[in-house]
Design goal:
Elements lengths: L6 H14 L2 H8 L10 H15 L3 H14 L4 H14 L2 H14 L4 H13 L3 H14 L4 H13 L3 H14 L4 H13 L3 H14 L4 H13 L3 H14 L4 H13 L3 H14 L4 H13 L3 H14 L4 H14 L2
Helix pairs in contact: 1-3, 3-4, 4-5, 5-6, 6-7, 7-8, 7-9, 8-9, 9-10, 10-11, 11-12, 12-13, 13-14, 14-15, 15-16, 16-17, 17-18, 18-19
């Protein structure tokens, strides 16, 4: 690779890299790097090469540039963080862990390094190590929402749902409009079968963000689990009012009608799903089984035959087709 050896050529190559990745200009001004100001142009050049290589998916090149930069400034924790991220993107979490451990040793208050290292520990199942790092971030800043969120994830993975909810409550105490905290708190209340508390979370989200499909679907699910099909249908139909082709809401509606033996309505809803995705044969299975339940054997035979025509090796369809013939008496 061509390495310029004078200031003018260095600056020319730097501007080339900045043109090559235009967004870098905005990022550098919004989030200034330590290499932009008060540093020599060769270090800036290495940083830009590493940054552009990482963004274009050339992780080995990025790692090489960041390592070259570290040789120039071994104490740079910012370079180590960038190097660790490149290793993670390459798929080498072990090397990233080593780099970040050194970063935290050099700078025990380096929040970014602790958060990334904590996520690696979480992925490896080392929950206690991850929690210790997240707690250190929180000790430095009692309103570090990101650290709280990561800490709650670890508790949730350990199935300590009440502890995770208490973390979300701490976030909501100083930021009561925090949508992720409300949503995940609601999901955990749902897991604990604390349905009224779950509804409060989802209702708050829908007040703040009326078009939240996830919150609406979960609100409908709570109503279903409480045995209130009417309320659930109202929620799902409100989704369809703004998005008539919404498959999730349509599938929920079809499921309610099927459970309540409103077969024609259920089949109509499943037919709508099938129209939106003809490759999804599971919907045709649902329709065929509803025909079987109504003893409409000829219709069931037609459905399962169509599935077999499209998927000759689909043994489930073969089983239900045989069952339909048997029930018909043939």
């Amino acid at each position: 690779a061509y390495e310029p050896d004078n200031r003018f050529e260095h600056e020319s190559v730097i501007f080339y890299y900045m043109r090559k990745l235009c967004i870098a200009v905005f990022i550098f001004f919004l989030f200034p790097s330590p290499y932009l100001f008060g540093s020599d142009s060769e270090s800036l050049l290495l940083y830009l090469k590493g940054y552009t290589s990482e963004k274009s998916g050339e992780y080995d090149k990025a790692i090489g540039y960041y390592n070259s930069l570290l040789k120039r400034d071994p104490q740079s924790t910012e370079t180590r963080n960038s190097l660790a991220v490149a290793h993670i993107k390459k798929g080498d979490q072990n090397r990233a862990e080593e780099v970040l451990q050194t970063t935290v040793q050099l700078d025990p208050a380096n929040r970014k390094a602790m958060l990334i290292l904590g996520s690696i520990y979480t992925n490896k199942g080392a929950g206690d190590k991850a929690k210790a790092l997240y707690q250190r971030c929180i000790d430095l800043d009692k309103e570090d929402t990101e650290a709280y969120m990561y800490l709650a994830v670890v508790y949730a993975q350990e199935k300590r749902y009440a502890d995770a909810i208490s973390i979300y409550d701490k976030i909501l105490a100083y930021d009561d409009d925090n949508l992720p905290a409300l949503y995940y708190s609601g999901k955990l209340h749902l897991e604990l079968k604390e349905y009224e508390k779950a509804k409060q979370c989802f209702a708050r989200i829908l007040l703040l963000k009326p078009d939240s499909e996830s919150a609406a679907l979960d609100m409908g699910m709570v109503h279903e689990l409480q045995g209130d099909s009417r309320q659930a249908l109202e929620v799902y139909q409100s989704i369809l009012a703004t998005d008539p082709t919404n498959k999730n809401a349509t599938a929920r509606i079809a499921g309610i009608f099927a459970r309540e033996k409103q077969f024609d309505k259920a089949i109509n809803a499943f037919e709508q799903l099938s129209e939106s995705d003809r490759q999804d044969i599971s919907v045709r299975f649902d329709i065929g089984r509803l025909y079987l339940e109504q003893q409409r054997f000829d219709d069931a035979i037609r459905e399962f035959s169509l599935i077999l025509a499209a998927r000759p090796r689909e043994n489930r369809a073969r089983f239900f087709l045989a069952l339909a013939w048997e029930e018909k008496g043939d």
